Amino acid sequence: MRIALFTNTYPPSLNGVANVTHFYRLGLTEHGHEVHVFAPTPLGEDPFEGDPAVHRYPAFRCPGELDYMIALPPLFFPKMAVEISGMQFDLVHTQHPVWVGAWGQRVARRMGIPVVSTAHSQYEVYANRTVLPTAWIEPGVTRHVVHYFNACQVVTTPVEWMQRRLVDKGVTSPVEIVPNPVDLTKLGAPRREQTRAALGLSNREIAIGYLGRLSPVKRVPVLMDTVALLAKHRPEVRLVIAGGGGIEPALRERARRVLGNRAIFAGAIPHAEVGHYHAAFDVFVTASISETQPLAYSEAM
User: Fold this and answer.
1) How many CB atoms lie within 10 A of CB 268?
2) Residues 232, 168: one domain?
3) Counting beta carbons within 10 angstroms of the beta carbon of residue 74, is it exposed (0 to 12), middle (13 to 18) or buried (19 or more)?
4) 3-state helix vs strand vs coil in the chain, percent to 5
5) Which candidate among 35, 56, 139, 281 keeps its CA 20 to 30 Å from the CA of 223?
6) How would you classify residue 207: left for phi > 0, otherwise alpha for psi between -120 and 50, otherwise beta?
7) Nearest by Cα to 3 from 91, 83, 80, 86
8) How much is the pTM?
9) 13 in helix, strand or coil?
10) Is there a single domain that holds both residue 8 and residue 53?
11) Which of 63-67, 184-188, 256-260, 285-289 has the lowest mean pLDDT?
12) What is the helix (H) or strand (E) element at residue 196, kind and residue range?
């Protein structure tokens, strides 16, 4: 089959959906399918430049994020629309119900082919990212998501609770559970001791680690407050925050006040090094309530 993946994020952007989408591409290709990816142009060097199966929309950086890019609408880049119109696909697979995902659904409609979409997140939690009251925005987000998924032939999601939630919200298209792919070969031979040494952790210290984007929906301050409470009983605990994002300066200031020298900021971590950091942690933690099956969970286990 010839499959088109439409996504709002793709490597080298450092986030779970970007990596999962790439793993979809690799897995489908290994099974003999021809897979094309349509995604925003990254900030900086593109490791897929010259790859004829990766098609990039011009993009600008999302305010408040370090490397999350927003694609410019096809109206500003008609060359892409002309390019797509000359292609023949058997299936479109979208990773989001908005923006590039919506463009992918329109492509499928024009070509008269099926569209599959994966629900990666509870999209309503992003309603507070606008200047309007959340109570106004959230119902509209729900209506849009339900309408979008009902225009798909199949919806997939990694976990059963999201399957139930989509059905309860009014999604009538078939909703199938498909676990997120993970490349375990990248996690072999972890360097625990070297990574702990680089982080400044002693053998007696307990490393409680978070690995992911630094954005409001991840609720990293909750982790800080939790570790601060734990430190009253176990003074050897340290919180390691591995990731980058637009709110990092504010988080550093908060950590200074709440945790003092117990917080370690490791910065953005290339995906190839994720296994070393998970090995360096004694406990992996997260407080995010937006995801379905975060890649970091599978990698931590």
Assistant:
1) 14
2) no
3) middle
4) 45, 20, 40
5) 139
6) beta
7) 91
8) 0.85
9) coil
10) yes
11) 63-67
12) helix 192-199
Beta strands in 63-149 (DSSP E): 69-71, 91-94, 115-118
Q: How far is it, in rounded angstroms, from Cα 26 to Cα 157?
A: 19
pLDDT at 128: 67
Q: Check: CB of residue 244 under 8 Å from CB of residue 66.
A: yes
Residue owning tokens 């959340």? 134
Domain boundary among 177, 200, 218: 177
Q: Regarding beta strands 59-61 and 69-71, do their DSSP bridges make them parallel or antiparallel, or are they unpaired?
A: antiparallel
Q: Which domain holds residue 240?
A: 185-300
pLDDT tens across 64-73, in order? 666 689 999 8
Q: State both tokens at 141.
A: 């987000």
- If asked whether residues 11 and 110 sit together in one domain, one would say yes
pLDDT higher than 70, residue 55: yes
206 close to 282: Cβ distance less than 8 angstroms: yes
Q: Whose CA is closest to 239, among 199, 270, 271? A: 199
- Number of compact structural domains in the chain: 2
Helix (H, G, I), strand (E, B) or coil at 278: helix
How many whole angstroms separate alpha carbon 293 and alpha carbon 22? 16
With cut-offs at 50, 70 and 90, classify the pLDDT of residue 272.
confident
Q: In which residue are the tokens 């010839």 written?
A: 2
CATH code, domain with 215: 3.40.50.2000
Q: Which residues are bridge partners to 38 per DSSP?
A: 6, 55
Q: How far apart are CA 156 and CA 276, in angstroms?
A: 31
